[in-house]
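hiii, so i know i said id send this last week but things got crazy w the move. better late than never?? heres the sequnce for the chain we talked about at the cafe, plus the structure i predicted for it. fair warning i was half asleep when i ran it
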Amino acid sequence: MRAEEKTKTKIVRISIVGFGHVGSGVAEVVMRKHDEILRKHGLDLQIVGIADLKGTIIDEAGLSGDEIVRFRAGRALKTEVDVDVDMSSLELIREIEHEVMVEATPTNVTNGEPGLTHIITALKSDRHVVTSNKGPLALEYRKLMELAERKGREIRFEATVGGAMPLISLIRENLAGNGIISIKGILNGTCNYILTRMTNENLPYEHVLREAQEIGIAETDPSKDVKGIDTAVKLVILANSVFGMDATYRDVKVRGITEITPDALKLAKDAGYAIKLIGDVDIDGQLEVTPRLVPVSDPLNVGGTLNVATIRTDLAGDITVIGKGAGSIEAASAILSDIIAIYS
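okay and structure toks below
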């Protein structure tokens, strides 16, 4: 292509289902990056519908930034934009014409709902799906992939594992010629923050957990994080998407961090180790989440809320990726990358 030739513009209409931290982050980055993405990739991204517990907001010509901000604040006005408190998320997915559905409702590892039904409905309605929701993939990965293949649509989920850390796309694309032997790492920033603070300050678990809750790093109910459930769900997604397993959460051996004491952390530190909550999946079918001793010089020894994963390959050796595993903009970064990848 000659330098003066311009990429043909493609309009990509997007719906966002679930408008909490991640969903609103997606809207923010789409608006912020719109012109840059249009220039670089020829994609004119337009958000045509948003659904959450407040109701549904739609504009088939593309919602404006002001309309989205008003909706997020709960001040959407019918005179300015079509707000339908009676339209369901499923009606939005089925009835409003668009190409990509972003599913950003909270993770449910019991039955995957409502995200599972949202994703199935979108694929059956000939929409591509990009999701940050771990539950549906942890429970029904194969079913969803087979449906997407039958419908000729894509389902992408970079944001489900490691947030902004490009783990799944790195393996699928940049390491496509490699055999993946194992993946292990820290996949939960809350646990890593707690263990880091306990180690550095010799503080008890309960004290650091309260601190993490006060500053918004830990949830009011932190059990999914500290008991290792969140890490286990992410391992299942890696097991199925990278190693072709048909695993579920029930296949993972899980132990969290609630019983780790300052004394144990100090003993490890004096011996040249850190204790980290490590998730491990390998080609032989191992699926385990447990606190492990990590040498202080090991690439897996990262602090704070960082995530890290070491990918062991047969050709490239060990490759370690470090990044922010949580946060609305970080997750939105991964979702935006997935949308662009669909049309690359």
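btw The two ends are 16 Å apart (CA to CA). thought thatd interest u
miss u guys!!
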